[in-house]
Model the fold of this input.
Amino acid sequence: MSLITKIGSIDIRNPLILASGVMGTSYSTLQRIYNGGVGAVVTKSIGLNSRKGNPNPSVFALNEIRSAINSVGLANPGYQVFREDVEILVKNHVPTIVSIFGENENEFSEILNGLKDFPVLAFELNLSCPNTEKGGIQIGTDSEAVFQIVKRLKSETEVPLWVKLTPNVSDVIEIAEAAVNGGCDALVAINTLKAMVIDIHTKQPILGFKKGGLSGAAIKPIGVRYIYDLYERFEDRIPLIGAGGIMSGEDVIEYLLAGASAVQIGTALGVAYPENMIKFFISKIKKYMRENEFKSISEITGGAH
Ligand SMILES: Cc1cc2nc3c(=O)[nH]c(=O)nc-3n(C[C@H](O)[C@H](O)[C@H](O)COP(=O)(O)O)c2cc1C
Done:
């Protein structure tokens, strides 16, 4: 039995990947999560320039539903400062996926070209940034923009490009098709869902930015549905990476059965000892594989279809 997981041309030691954002951009926390046992890590999304992000509170736990709401936004140090962290990550052989965001094609291209000399595993395109030139609509909701960005970046690097899909669209297949036609190497679904919480005593939104994105257990059935729909559309023509509400080994298996080749875990690892969580995940996956006589992760992928 092997947990080695293939995502297109890439092999990682198991199907668990740290999702973008929860552990930031600094090499030490990312390295810690890798040492804790995941197959690879995704950095918080990196942009052109440093951004402070939104006012506090920017993350709020919704413990009763094992979920969280955040408005961290795109706080990051900018790609030039981030180069120091990525240099250490690759020197220490941490399989790293660098998440990048931009307002338009040129911004994405500048960041990619500023980082592409590092032997990272992949670049993940976070398309959740609003495009001010187009009246602030999110790039990830505009299929033509998605196609153009992916096509352009694909012509500028040999490093695999993953596209992370936002669930905040009416037709995710249309956006996914644009990314696939542009030449992306894998699709990641899903990012957080638009959400909000209001304190009934102060009668005000709880987050400093008022509105935010929902993650954690509450969004798992939505993520599973997206992966199921994407697998139905593309079958094994494009690797799918499931994300959203993975809190246990069982959740990982559910995403694999829906059609994912690997998964990303965010909120569940934002705890004091993420290493313990990762161990539980892995032992549950192994137990399930033994009980069901699966020899490899790829045998589980798409099994629910
Ligand atoms: C605090 C926080 C920050 C996040 N930052 C990013 C980010 O910078 N880029 C990105 O693509 N996704 C970001 N995400 C979304 C996660 O990568 C993931 O897609 C989402 O949280 C669903 O997975 P989960 O339910 O396991 O957390 C963030 C999520 C959280 C909770």
Q: What stands out?
A: The chain is about 30% helix and 20% strand. The mean pLDDT is 95. The chain has one domain: 5-53+73-193+213-299. Residues 5-53+73-193+213-299 form a domain with the TIM Barrel fold (CATH 3.20.20.70).
